[in-house]
Write a structure and sequence with these properties.
primary miRNA binding, tRNA pseudouridine(55) synthase, Pus10-like_C, about 160 residues, single chain, 5 helices, six-stranded antiparallel beta sheet, about 20% helix, Pus10-like, alpha+beta, globular
Length: about 160
């Protein structure tokens, strides 16, 4: 495994692998059990139909531990059961770009549907960025910045 990890790491400067290892079925089960405690950070490019100013989005930075009710999104309904899931947006930081665009940095509970949090999914995610800003919002880009989970266990190298 160490050899394979080294080969991967030497093959590209775009990705790096650490702690590559075989894991047991039980270890995967433990990871799945802890899934709801994981957090993820994202960067989203948001478009709004009505013009915005910095002041219009500044309040987003002050919102902490925002509770969402998310119905299974329409885009995944064919492969996931219909349910309402309570998810948490831990923090948000907005970056004004121009009168119709801003970047939103989010730290969320794992399992949060970010695209739907931005556009609302026809009212299936409440609250959402559109409802908070009182205008139509849509997502143009979404990047996962980090997945914060202590798994797999670190290897002694």
């Amino acid at each position: 495994m160490k050899e394979l990890q080294q080969t991967i790491n030497n093959s590209s400067d775009k990705i790096q692998v650490r702690d590559l290892q075989l894991v047991t079925r039980e270890a995967i089960g433990r990871m799945k059990e802890g899934e709801e405690e994981k957090t993820k950070t994202y960067s989203a490019l948001v478009w709004t139909d009505k013009a915005i100013q910095k002041e219009d989005i500044a309040f987003l930075d002050d919102i902490k531990e925002l509770k969402l009710d998310q119905k299974t999104p329409l885009r995944v309904l064919h492969r996931r059961p219909l349910a309402v899931r309570c998810r948490i947006i831990h923090t948000m930081k907005s970056e004004y770009i121009d009168e119709h665009h801003f970047r939103l940095h989010l730290k969320t509970q794992a399992g949060t549907y970010i695209k739907e949090f931005v556009h609302g999914d026809f009212g299936r995610t409440k609250p959402n960025i559109g409802s908070l800003l009182n205008r139509t919002a849509d997502i143009l880009e979404l990047d996962v910045e980090s997945v914060d989970v202590d798994w797999p266990p670190a290897l002694d190298n």
